[in-house]
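Need a sequence for this fold. Nothing fancy.
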């Protein structure tokens, strides 16, 4: 039997460090700790897939909390069953002692773990849906107030029209024009349309 640890976070934050420290306190060897810096929206994650292939019957997998395994309610339940029932792997969730398949192998123990898992997964799923709805409502409200969302529009130099005239007359190449405007070629052409300026150069 081997003991593994799975650590995941969406970004480079302190949560990752805390998870790694927790694995080390459990005396898990570094080569058996799989670290994922990716969203938990699904299980198509490279490190998780490597871990899944490596796990054998009788192995033990540690995670700090159920949301580190994943964030999708249905897929968490599916993966839990794959790990525990198909592969015969034990799972221990640090912040939820009831989710430790080593505790009891009888029908009541398995049933209790399944119920707790479903409740926790459902709660996590509901919280994410509520957060998404509130974000959407906040964005809609901001738009109604006329709040500008996203990046502010790129400001054009005061002599933009003069640069465009030089470009149209063939005195400037497109590369020179966008360099003077400090924008990309695609933005240059987009600005021409926005200012209702001709988008083609004159033939000399």
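Here you go.
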């Amino acid at each position: 039997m081997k003991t593994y640890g799975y650590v995941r976070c969406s970004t480079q934050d302190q949560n990752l460090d805390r998870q790694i420290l927790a694995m080390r306190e459990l005396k898990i060897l570094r080569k058996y700790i799989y670290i994922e810096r990716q969203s938990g929206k699904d299980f198509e994650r490279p490190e998780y897939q490597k871990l899944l292939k490596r796990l054998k019957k009788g192995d033990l997998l540690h995670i700090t909390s159920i949301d580190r395994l994943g964030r999708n309610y249905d897929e968490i339940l599916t993966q839990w069953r794959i790990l525990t029932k198909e592969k015969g792997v034990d799972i221990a969730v640090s912040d939820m002692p009831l989710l430790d398949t080593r505790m009891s192998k009888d029908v009541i123990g398995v049933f209790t773990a399944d119920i707790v898992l479903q409740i926790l997964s459902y709660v996590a799923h509901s919280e994410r849906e509520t957060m998404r709805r509130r974000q959407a409502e906040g964005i809609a409200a901001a738009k109604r107030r006329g709040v500008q969302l996203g990046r502010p529009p790129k400001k054009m130099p005061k002599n933009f029209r003069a640069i465009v005239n030089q470009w149209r007359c063939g005195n400037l190449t497109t590369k020179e024009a966008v360099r003077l405007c400090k924008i990309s070629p695609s933005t240059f052409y987009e600005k021409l349309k926005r200012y209702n300026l001709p988008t083609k150069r004159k033939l000399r």
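For context: Residues 107-144 form the longest helix (38 residues).
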